[in-house]
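Quick start: read one record
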Amino acid sequence: DGESTWFPAAEASEVVDVGGDHGVVLRRVQGGSVDLVDILQFPYLANGILKISVDTRVSDPAVRTLDLCLFPQSGGLMASFLAFGTNANQFSYYNGTAWEGLTNLDGAWHHLEITNYLSGPHRGKFDLSFDGVLIGEKLAWRHVIAEGTAFGRLRVGAIRGTFAGAYGEVDNLVISGAPAPAVALPVTILNPAHSGDSFSFSFISQNGFGHAVEY
């Protein structure tokens, strides 16, 4: 919507009309031994939640075609890192040491929602939904990234592929930000007192939460 800038690889992605419900989409073709990386730079966000919503399809689920990776505004450290076909016929993420398959992959269109936590108790992790089903919760980013780092780049990559000409397609890409969700803290009972038939105590309430006393 005019707020982001596209930096294509030397061999740029194609814009193709696939017809049907999707029509015109972005197609990133594998270059085999040549890494082809497109970068979408968007207004940066340093705290709260950064959500990436996108429709994707691959030409061959058995070979590495496409990867999606969230980067900080600058530098090469990687946050959520996803790949199609790195593990044959699997949609996978990099857990910091290895690729871990999350669900089976085919050649149909699928909707992804990647919820990255930039701050709060879950900072440095992300949730992942596949066609509306949560398949990963509080998954680790590829790298440990310092708190307060600003994020503003999404990589649509075709790297380390073994089959030149295979491709992934991207449509309906939406990137949005939101405040980090509030988390209820444990309540500590203060000043307990017993006098005759009465028992009393106090506690410190937390802004934004309701508290109920049961007896």
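The chain has a mean pLDDT of 93.
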